Target: Dehydrogenase/reductase (SDR family) member 13b.1
Amino acid sequence: FNTSCCSVYTKLLDPVRKSRNSVCPSLPGSNTGIGKMTAIDLARRGARVILACRSRERGEAALADVKRESGSSQVVFMQLDLGSLKSVRSFAETFLRTEPRLDLLINNAGVYMQGRTEDGLGMMFGVNHVGHFLLTHLLLDRLKQCGPSRVVNVASLAHNFGTIDFDCLTKHKALGLETSSTRVFKIYSDSKLCNVLFTHELAKRLEGTKVTCYSLHPGAIRSELARNTSWVLQLLIVPMTAFFFKNTVQGAQTTLHCALQEGIEPLTGRYFSNCTVRELYPKAKDDAAAKKLWELSERLCGLA
Model:
């Protein structure tokens, strides 16, 4: 079982999915937070897990932690910077050359900060959406070969506050340019709406294959996502998260549900929260917007 979470890939003999002889999950974004907890859980089940992380130092530290806590030696670190399309392509090339299976791709990585990627994209648009979009595209044939397989996109309830400004994307390759705290949150929400729309369109394009896909809200999590925000905001957030937010083990449960639960194939393209399928606002399942975002993403990745 191979899983990708933009930080973790895995091969797994999964007792939950008994119909498979081998499962390999890959997880980008698995060196901290819910990605790391997802990797540990999958590794405990017998998966070969590939941790796909930007920082070699943090990735290798996570590798040691996941091996120790899961008791598994079938965990591998592979470097992946979702803010670099060159890195995404290099990762996919290496993965496809060295790993024979990919049963589960978990797109878990995310940033909460303004700036530009190596390719000149807005940071949150480039990392949270475009990097995952290209990675999924490059690994899709392998997922089809190993079907039944799944793509799990970790989004957020914040997508409800998002909109897609296609004029801004076309002109500036960013969801927004502002740097005030309220605007940064709005741009983050926009990027999470991209995750949900991407899943919606991906499901349509995967009809007739044995690959299904799901987006999800993991819950409000005590994690390192806000590490790039101001110290004032972090000072305000930390006490609140300690009492009201989920820990990372709890926060990984909906990801694991979408990855492992039997019988949810008819729900492909849907959005989950607390391990339950949820209805979306019309803007999050807009066929025209999803198709337009897909085509724009293809152009930005050099696929069209």
User: Anything to note?
Assistant: The chain is about 45% helix and 15% strand.
